[in-house]
Amino acid sequence: MKTLKNFWYALFLLCLASPALTSCGDDDGGTLSTPQFESVSGKYTVTTPGSQYKSIELGASGNYIVMTNSGYRAQADASRSAKEKDTFLFHHAANDSRATNYNGIIYGTYTQLSDGRYNLEGFGIIEIIYGSDNTVTGFELTPENGGPVSLTVSKEETMPDDDVTNALCRTWEVESIRFIETEDGETFDITLNKDNWNSFEDAERFPEEVLFSKSGTYMIYYTSGEIGISSWKWKNKDEKSFFYSWNNQWYDDEFATVSFSGNRAIIYECYEESGPYPYKEEDYTYLIAK
Fold first, then answer.
1. For 30, how many CA atoms within 13 A lie in the half-sphere containing its CB?
2. Going by DSSP bridges, is the β-strand pair 136-143/149-155 parallel, antiparallel, or unpaired?
3. Does domain 4-32+161-289 have CATH number 2.40.128?
4. Distance between CA atoms of residues 83 and 95, nearest Å
5. pLDDT 10s digits, 2-60
């Protein structure tokens, strides 16, 4: 049987890390504009031998993720219990300039300069190099600290364009998280947001931003400066349900449903247990497009 205290830990995985979850939700029909950097967005694997960088991902909404070769690497676990313990969300985080550098993962915002290059704030400036077929083949990187570096890159495969994928794949602000738990006939109904979350003694942090990309990246940025990197893929696009994985291990019962309305989205999950001690929990995460 689950307890309210235990649920807080799942809650701060953006309600996407509890086992045996089933999902549902209705769509009001969102009207989301195309993100500013959709045309250059993607995850670029660095192929330069000996590079300290593993990948550079440019998000469609103007956020970037740099994975260093000393950074976190998710490992698939053989058992569910081991999987549940495999999290790096509660480690100490260090802040670095205008970007966050957590456990070898650098996250921040970027803008386009007048000369066409991109300023990855807190990290450096990159110029995108295109090949003869107009595909991206490299970056000319000028780090904030150090001399220029030439990087060869390969863009990872992305999901095909469609209305639902285009709507989800961007950076979102977490407006609030509502948790409804019914156990032994008693119901707890709690809503957390960035202003009240620290008034709950079991709450250690609050997820401020969520990034979904067509490369299958799912990332959470927390109030503490910590970063959670996960993966996602569609379960049933027509139903707007998607699988998620924190360690490269996919489970059929770990999925959520997203619905859209205007520039907002709701991620929903529902869990139930029957038997002598019936239990039910419903999680609603309310997002606003950035």
1. 23
2. antiparallel
3. yes
4. 28
5. 433 333 334 444 433 333 334 444 455 457 899 999 999 999 999 999 999 999 999 99
| pLDDT band at residue 72 using 50, 70 and 90 as cut-offs | low
Q: Give residue limits of the domains in the chain.
A: 4-32+161-289, 38-155
Degrees, nearest 5: CA angle 28-254-266: 25
* Bigger pLDDT: 93 vs 56: 56
Tokens of 206: 């609050």
Burial of 257 (0-12, 13-18, 19+ CB in 10 A): buried
Is the distance from CB of 249 to CB of 77 less than 8 angstroms? yes
- Quote the CA–CA distance of 236 and 257 in Å, as a whole number: 9
Number of other CB atoms surrounding residue 283 within 10 Å: 24
pLDDT of residue 71: 56
The strand pairing partners of 58, in sequence order, are 42, 64
